[in-house]
Write a structure and sequence with these properties.
The protein has 353 residues and is of the alpha/beta class. Helix content is 42%, strand content 15%. The protein folds into 2 domains: 140 residues, Rossmann fold; 144 residues, Rossmann fold (3-Layer(aba) Sandwich). It has 14 helices and 12 strands.
Length: 353
């Protein structure tokens, strides 16, 4: 290549084999799966302002950055997080120019679950995209059936291990300056989170400190004002602070009223070797057999917290088998994703009727 005087050399970006695109504020899932598969992760969400810009502004900015990435990197295979379904639409339109095979990562909310009314109204667009995408990642067999009924190709994929897995089995401290047990509740004050029940449970277990994540602006004011003294609202925790809070926790709670939700925090706790409390749904019992399963009410949550803090050694003894179970499941899911990526360049065009 000959350089033109006074100008920088023009270097054409090489094509990437796989990318995972998200328009959400939290990029852990897309980043960890892309890293495990040797791909690129792109999270397009305006950051740095505690007050979120209007959704239309966010979508326009995210769409522009998505188009720029798709055109410059031309991924052979690309998965895009849904919701919002518009992210999938932008990537699909770009794929007509880049020749990319597109997959959707459709969370339960994208089907209208978790009280996601916007996604519920946009189900026709979701269905349209599913028929045209090469694959749709879902959480449970229930959503597999839905995707298949729409003419799509579902694949259950949960969470990659990332950097959560400890090198050695965790051990309870024999002595510590901190004598009060610490529960770490991971949430964002979403409609499917029984956070009121958790706060009420904290009143019944005053000897335990409850650390509750989520943007303070999203937390109902009455909930904060009437919370007992052992409840601490952390605000939204970015990656480093989140990892430190998880490492400091004696147990982790991940609760939902949505039966098909597979909570990322539950996987993170398991990979990190932390005792886990989750809502008692069939999917949770199957995926997290070593956890404590609770009804979404204050009495049952308080009972589980007292049991966990009173017999932590027993729960920690189950940490390594729990992690091994999740790793085996992820290994199978990873191989299925790798097979899809390998086939992306040679897969025939899908019918669009």
């Amino acid at each position: 290549m000959t350089d033109t005087p006074g100008r920088s050399p023009v270097v054409k970006a090489s094509r990437t084999s796989f990318a995972f695109i998200s328009w959400g504020a939290i990029s852990g899932r897309s980043g960890e799966i892309a890293a495990a598969l040797g791909g690129e992760a792109k999270c397009y969400y305006p950051a740095g302002n505690p007050k979120r810009p209007h959704v239309l502004i966010r979508y326009v900015l995210s769409a522009a950055r998505t188009v720029a990435f798709m055109i410059s990197r031309r991924p052979e295979a690309v998965i895009v997080t849904n919701p919002p379904v518009f992210a999938g639409l932008v990537v699909y339109v770009c794929s007509k120019l880049t020749g990319s095979t597109v997959g959707l990562d459709s969370h339960p909310g994208s089907f209208g679950a978790q009280e996601d009314r916007v996604s519920a109204r946009l189900l026709p667009l979701h269905r349209w995209l599913v028929r045209r995408c090469g694959i749709t990642l879902v959480t449970t067999e229930h959503w597999c059936d839905i995707v298949e009924s729409w003419g799509g190709h579902p694949l259950i994929v949960h969470e990659a291990p990332g950097s959560w897995s400890p090198a050695q089995p965790p051990q309870p401290p024999e002595s510590s300056e901190r004598t009060r047990p610490r529960l770490f509740y991971v949430g964002r004050f979403a409609p499917d989170e029984p956070v009121e029940a958790l706060i009420a449970a904290a009143s019944a277990v005053p000897e335990c400190d409850f650390y509750v994540t989520g943007r303070i602006l999203d937390c109902p004011a009455a909930l904060r004002e009437h919370a007992p003294a052992n409840v601490h609202f952390t605000g939204f925790l970015h990656s480093g602070a989140y990892q430190r809070a998880l490492a400091d926790a004696d147990l982790v709670a991940a609760l939902t009223t949505e039966p098909t939700s597979v909570m990322r925090a539950a996987y993170e706790a398991t990979y990190a070797g932390k005792p886990l409390i989750i809502s008692d749904w069939p999917a949770g019992r199957e995926l997290f057999p070593h956890a404590l399963h609770v009804e979404n009410n204050a009495e049952d949550i308080a009972r589980a917290v007292r049991s966990a803090t009173g017999d932590r050694r027993s729960l920690l003894a189950r940490a390594m088998p729990a992690k091994e179970t999740q790793l085996a499941r992820w290994n199978a899911q990873e191989e299925a994703l790798r097979a899809w990526i390998r086939d992306a360049g040679s897969r025939p065009a899908r019918p669009t009727s």
